[in-house]
Each structure stands twice: as C-alpha cells, then as structure tokens.
Amino acid sequence: MVSFEFDEKRVSQVCAHIIQKSKGRINYTKLLKILYLIDREALKLWNHSLTGDTPVSMDNGPVLSRIYNHIKGVASSTSNYWSQFISTDGYDVRLMREPEVDEISPADLEIIDSVYEIYKDYPYTKLIDICHELPEWVNPNGSSTPIYFETIFKHLQKDEALVKSIDFEQQSHQKVKKILNC
Asked: Could you list the residue range(s) of the whole structural domain that residue 53 is in?
C-alpha cells in the first residue's frame, strides 16, 4: 500500500504560505480542500504527495487527516512547529507569524500557487461541491473512510506497474531513513 512521509514542518510551511496568500486568514474547510487539490495535482504531475498526509473521505469531501487534526488541535505530534505559526479561530485558521520556507522548493511553490490561484475566490461550499465530484471520494455517511493512493492513481490513469514502482520507492526511502535514524 502506497504511503508517503508526513513532515509537520513542511506541511506547516505549505499551509502558512496559503494562509499568507489569503491575507493571513482562511476558512479551514477552504484550506483543507485547496490542500487536497494541491496534493492531487502533485500526485498527477510528480507521482508523489506534496504533503505526505493521509487522505480520507468525509461528508464534506476528501480531507488530509493529519492536517485536519492539527487544525482541530488534536494532532499527535512530537513537534509543536504548527502551533508556533498557525492557530484556529472558530472556523478559520490564521497566521500568527511567518515561518521560514526552507522545506518548500520552487517546484512546490509552483504547484501550490497555481492551484491556489484557480480556487482562491471560490467559497468553501463550492470547493466541497468540486471535491464531491472527484471519483476517489466515497460518501462515508457521517464517518470517514480512507482514500488509498492507489485509488487516486487509478483515477489519474496511472499505470499499475508505475504505482507498484512508487510503492517500492517509498518503502525503500522509509527503510533507509530508519537505518540512518533520520
């Protein structure tokens, strides 16, 4: 099963960049939908998740689960990097101060900014509708269900052999990191 590595610092910087582009504050559902669409675009173009987060189907469409937990304040994290820069205020998230951007590459910014530009003026309700149209989303009827990367890749018309190669590469990468203890 394909999985990618979640890096709180990187994800916090990606979210902070989007919040900053939204004048320092954005509805958290809108942020979650834009982030999902960014990750989907990265999967399409690079065969790799930009966030490394685990997608799930929820009633309002696909959600990146760990980011959602950070927004809700229930993340199980060894780091407090997120909370140094981003806070939740009702249904919004706001930028408390700018983080560094050392975990985001120019290529990352290109995808983030291009997807953000497409959806920046959409209300969160329209983004929910758009995400409900994605073929990998399945109505969980009040719960949540995993969206497997294999399913997303299938709907992005990625070859099965390529998906197996991506899985092998990710597993190898995680084993090397474990061996090197980083």
From this structure: 8-180
